[in-house]
Specification:
- The complex is a heterodimer.
- By secondary structure, chain A is of the alpha/beta class.
- Chain A is built from seven helices and five strands.
- Chain A has a five-stranded parallel sheet.
- A four-stranded mixed sheet of chain B has the order 1-2-4-3, with helices on one face.
- By secondary structure, chain B is α+β, with helices and mostly antiparallel strands.
- Chain B contains two helices and four strands; from the N terminus they run βαβαββ.
- Chain B has one domain: Translation Initiation Factor IF3.
- Classes of the chains: A alpha/beta, B alpha+beta.
Chain lengths: 130, 76
């Protein structure tokens, strides 16, 4: 089976939701999935952001998404992580830059890594940049 | 063919019915027949694609009055 790497850069809810759906379905098909969260894509997992649902999006689609009974990206990723070969990494640069600790984020990350480690991990993967 | 499990996902939209099928496939034993009911046309096309890629058997997609019955046999 193949390997898919998702670079989660944007913190917009519609992108987070799309990325998590692709990650989840790909992992259910036996693909190895690596998600690397950086920039606002990482901050979307911060405890206060999650608590207030203050993702960087607005409008009809996002209101509809939050109100619908579709599981949100966080739950989609957690479910895939529990059952399939999916790992989520936090970008060490953003943590350093904003003086944050991994404990400021919800408990979903497998490891904090830098770009060199990630590049090594994804050498043989298809990469989606979201 | 008698189904071992019926998932009524008629209130749900894409990818809801697929997600529910994925969960059911994980829980059931090899050889089980699982039937998903979906009123979402996208899912009626999407679920068979997933079933094929995942290596299970698509028993059939049956159009009822206002929904589809997608019948799947778990193969591995």
């Amino acid at each position: 089976m193949g390997k898919i790497a998702i670079l989660l850069v944007s913190g917009e809810l519609e992108k987070l939701q799309s990325a998590s759906t692709i990650a989840s379905v790909a992992s259910s098909l036996g693909e190895e999935v690596l998600v690397f969260a950086t920039m606002y894509g990482l901050l979307a997992f911060k405890k206060d952001v999650v608590e207030k649902k203050s993702w960087k999006s607005y409008g009809e689609l996002v209101e509809g998404l939050i109100e619908s009974d579709l599981p949100l990206f966080l739950d989609v990723l957690k479910e895939a992580k529990t059952n399939e070969n999916l790992k989520i990494y936090a970008c060490s640069m953003v943590l350093g830059m904003l003086n944050l600790s991994i404990t400021d984020f919800i408990d979903i990350f497998d490891e904090v890594v830098g770009v060199a480690t990630f590049l090594e991990m994804v050498e043989d993967a298809k990469i989606l940049f979201i | 063919m008698k189904s071992d499990r019926v998932i009524d996902a008629r209130e749900s939209f894409c990818p809801g019915p697929l997600m529910e099928l994925i969960k059911a496939i994980r829980e059931e034993n090899v050889g089980s027949v699982i039937e998903v009911w979906s009123s979402d046309e996208g899912s009626a096309r999407d679920i068979p694609e997933w079933v094929k890629k995942a290596g299970h058997e698509l028993v059939g997609v049956f159009k009822e009055s206002d929904y589809w019955r997608i019948v799947v046999k778990k193969k591995r």
